[in-house]
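Hello Y.,

Per our agreement to keep a running log of every chain we model this quarter, I'm adding this entry. I've kept the format consistent with earlier entries: sequence first, then predicted structure.
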Amino acid sequence: MVDFAEMLRVARAASGLTQAALGERSGIARPNIAAYEHGRREPLFDTAMRMLEAAGAEVEIGPAVTWTWTEDRRPYAVPSRLWRLAPSVCLRRFDPGPHLWWSGPRRDLDLAHRRDRLRAYEIVLREGSPHDIEDIVDGVLLCEAWSDLTLPRSLRSAWAPLVEAERPPDTWADAS
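Predicted structure for the entry above:
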């Protein structure tokens, strides 16, 4: 589920607009924009689109991600498709929390560093709920890292069709 308040705040800030300037561009009163950004009100769809477009945001609507579980002794969450995350989300610092990192001393992982990102992906794919997975896994970064992830065989088998569907055919083999 998308948090519209956060999306609007991020879009407005990225465009360098104040709430008043966004109000002038969109024709929506500044107090209403403030209420939307703080989650006190939810706009109608056309109002939301008008504000996001006035902030210079590109809106893409696609199918929702649905989740199934493997039927192994240890079930793993498997999505219906991969998704993209904003760079500020998929390259941030990540605290796995005790529900994911339940063994040994816990530490923050810096998702901007590949080694930490691989570790975070391994942890969240093995131990995480769909919400945990959607929160840090970016489809493109997952595809790039796929062959280097250490995952249980049944988890790898369940996710492999998603990753393989997104990866381009290997054209390097023909180049030699």
